[in-house]
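Why this split exists: single-chain examples teach little about how molecules sit against one another. For that reason, every record in the complexes split bundles all components of an assembly together and asks for one structure covering all of them. Below is a record exactly as it appears in the raw files.
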Amino acid sequence: MNTPGEGEVRISAELDIVTVRQEVRQASVALGFRPTDVTRIVTAASELARNVFLYAGTGTMRWRALSVDGNTGIELVFTDSGPGIGDVEQALVPGYTTGRGLGMGLPGAKRLMGEMDIQTALGSGTTVTVRKWQGRW
Amino acid sequence: MSIENISVIKLRGILLVTVPSDPDDETVSALQEQALEAMARYEAKGLVLDITTVQTLDSFFARMMAETVQMVGLMGGRTVVAGMRANVAITATQLGLTLGNALTALDVDQALEMLEKGVVGGWR
């Protein structure tokens, strides 16, 4: 059987958050992640997809399988052309929010995934990349 | 799109609300509304939120549950969140989520017993 190594979901409605969760769940199960890690990855994806929808309205989630030195991982990239994040450091403080969120999404997703990279500037959108590896927490 | 089916059942003066496994935000909001409406209509003494099949508990869902607990409390009732899966509990804790003043139970059976006997305890 051939496991797909990448995929993409467009986010333009609230319901697309569910589609992102389903796509990411399917992908991480197919890649052989443990059930607890699957839940972590899907939950992080849900938070990041909701951020795209809440702050930018539209965007995309792309995922791809990673393989380095025999270690398997998954990478999720959330891209939008929304308002951008003015202060990334501040945005990573638990409880901080400029919107109607809980302020848990970004810092929480980072904790759940392990690796997070944020490319953003005010007025020029945001790209959040997260990675989870099977061998590590 | 359609809101997923939410089941609200009254038994022995307690409301049992079964949460669908992968609800969208609209369904989660509708769930809160229906639960509160039913609390008033049936004059129920408590609410059991059955999340046995729920696979993903994110911050939006957690906030709606915590709010529901708070609102039911203001109406004079108790809420027990029942059946959280181990994976979900681990993830929710790492994410930094809490459920406010919700009581928790391993399953629906235990939750009903807690409300019937008026047992207090659980996750705070």
